[in-house]
Amino acid sequence: MSRPARVLIVDDDFLIATFLEDICLDTGADVVGVAHKAETAVELALARKPDVILMDVRLGPGADGVEAAAEIQETLLDVKVIFVTGSNEPETIARINKNNPYSIFIKPVNPKDLSDLIESCSAPSFDRAVSIASQF
């Protein structure tokens, strides 16, 4: 048995963030926060330690999603960053790929594809790990 993935959503567009949150909730994921700026994303990620981050690239003035992901991944080594972006220029994709993303979705997103990927990110539950360990 696995526990639901803990997901942080980062998108400067309120409607898209809400759409992504609905997809996560429909899969049973635990949405641990929604950020609209890179700086807030970093703060929330470090405080709430998500399993998965749905990250847009363009986040308005200041740092972008690629920079935020790099900063987060310096501390949270196992976090799976899934870029969900409308930015499909070769230069942007190359920048994203330098951070070893878990996946990249170009908007518009197929909800079923994203849902399946989020479900695959569910972490083993602590109870199951204790149960397995107690058998030895």
**SS-based class:** alpha/beta
Question: How far apart, in Å, are the first and last alpha carbons?
Answer: 19 Å
Number of DSSP E strands: 5
Outline: globular
Biggest β-sheet: strands ordered side by side in the sheet: 2-1-3-4-5
Report low-confidence residues grouped into runs of 5 or more: 125-136
- Main beta sheet strand tally, sense and closure: 5 strands, parallel
Tell me the Rg in angstroms. Answer: 15 Å
Mean pLDDT: 89
Classify the helix fraction into a percent range: 40-55%
Q: Quaternary arrangement of the chains shown?
A: single chain
Q: How many distinct helices?
A: 6
Fraction in beta strands: 15-25%
What's the helix-strand series? EHEHEHEHEHH
Overview of this structure, please?
- With 136 residues, this protein is an alpha/beta fold.
- The protein is 46% helix and 18% strand.
- It has six helices and five strands.
- It has helices at 14-27, 38-48, 65-75, 90-98, 111-120, 126-133, and strands at 6-10, 30-35, 52-55, 80-85, 103-106.
- A five-stranded parallel β-sheet has the order 2-1-3-4-5, sandwiched between helices.
- Strand 1 (6-10), helix 1 and strand 2 form a beta-alpha-beta unit.
- Helix 1 packs across helix 5 (111-120) and helix 2 packs parallel to helix 3 (65-75).
- Residues 125-136 have low confidence and may be disordered.
For the structure shown, list the relevant keywords.
136 residues, alpha/beta, five-stranded parallel beta sheet, globular, disordered C terminus
Overview in brief:
This protein has 136 residues and is α/β, with parallel strands linked by helices. The chain is built from 6 helices and 5 strands. Helix 1 (14-27) crosses helix 5 (111-120).
